[in-house]
Automatic annotation (TrEMBL):
InterPro entries reported in the protein's UniProt record: DUF305_CopM-like (IPR005183), Ferritin-like (IPR012347)
Tagged with keyword GTP-binding: no
Transmembrane annotation, as ranges: 6-26, 38-58, 64-84
Coiled-coil regions listed in the entry: none
Pfam family, one: DUF305
Segments forming domain DUF305: 94-147
Protein name: DUF305 domain-containing protein
Annotated source species: Albidovulum marisflavi
Highest taxon listed in the record's lineage: Bacteria
Keyword entries, A-Z: Membrane, Transmembrane, Transmembrane helix
Length: 287
């Protein structure tokens, strides 16, 4: 076997290992290019080069070249390991592109594991909900950061104060509020029957916004409360707003930026200052 064939074998194996690392993601739309996974694939390729050459030394007679391969592979291994652990080249966008498939793995294992204990099932369902919400939020932030929309300020709750357990139970942390998935039968309690549109953060979950077509009435669930919303008059820059006193949901089609991962952007905001965006999917009943 020639050295060029050995190099091609290691290169092919490295590429294959990079692809294989995505096979345990939950859905195809969760596949994003990840610098960290590239470094891991290169690290594994360097390891494979050392192990395979060690087992096949009898097939390669050039001792100087063998030493060079061992040394080069060790350097590549050390550099790749440093890049993985230091994350020195990973920016905000790269971080989120790496985290989306990572979250997707958590969704896949939490949903499909054979769980019998109700406590573990509850924990797994909470993980699924949190990971899907964060995936939708990261898709939104990737688009926002890529377009140059950055900020140094985010909403923060006031610092904790001494009090009683009743005070704690009656206290709402604004920063932890998030639109919850809303089933169709729950939306029925606020909306008239008829064709509807809805925004989903993930195709596998219930929508977080239901809209009655024609009436402009909408519904959301927040902190265990079903909240009716009303559409504003018309649209501004293709953004349709649904609001109630203190809260607003703004929906914008992505147009040319739409793909299999997302077609619509929703921004949830409260008067207190909280603002969170998601990218997901908009669908409407047939008329």
């Amino acid at each position: 076997m020639t050295y060029s064939r050995f190099a091609l074998m290691i290169l092919t194996s490295t590429v294959v290992m990079f692809v294989l690392m995505y096979l345990n993601t939950y859905a195809f739309e969760h596949v994003f290019f990840s610098e960290t996974r590239v470094y891991m694939a290169v690290l594994m390729g360097a390891t494979m080069a050392i192990i395979m050459l060690g087992y096949m030394l009898g097939m390669y007679a050039n001792k100087a070249l063998n030493i060079a391969i061992f040394a080069g592979a060790a350097v590549v291994f050390a550099l790749s390991l440093w890049l993985v652990r230091s994350q020195v080249t990973v920016s905000g966008e790269s971080y989120m592109r790496a985290m989306i498939p990572h979250h997707s793995i958590a969704v896949m294992t939490s949903e499909r594991a054979r769980i019998r204990d109700a406590r573990v099932r509850k924990l797994a369902d909470e993980i699924i909900g949190a990971q899907r919400r964060e995936i939708a939020e990261m898709r939104y932030l990737i688009g926002a950061v890529a377009s140059g929309e950055t900020t140094d300020v985010v909403y923060a709750d006031p610092p904790p104060e001494p009090g009683t357990i009743d005070d704690a139970l009656n206290n709402t942390l604004i920063s932890a509020l998030d639109p919850a998935p809303l089933r169709a039968d729950e939306a029925d309690r606020l909306l008239a029957s008829g064709p509807r549109c809805a925004f989903n953060r993930s195709p596998e979950t219930d929508p977080i916004l239901w809209v009655s077509r024609g009436t402009g009435e909408a519904a959301m669930s927040l902190n265990g409360v079903l909240v009716p919303l009303a559409a504003s008059d018309g649209t501004v820059d293709e953004i349709t707003t649904y609001a109630a006193p203190g809260v607003m949901m703004s929906v914008r089609p992505l147009g040319e930026d739409a793909d299999w991962r997302q077609d619509t952007e929703l921004v949830f905001s409260l008067d207190q200052g909280l603002r969170v965006g998601y990218r997901g999917f908009w669908s409407c009943d047939a008329t």
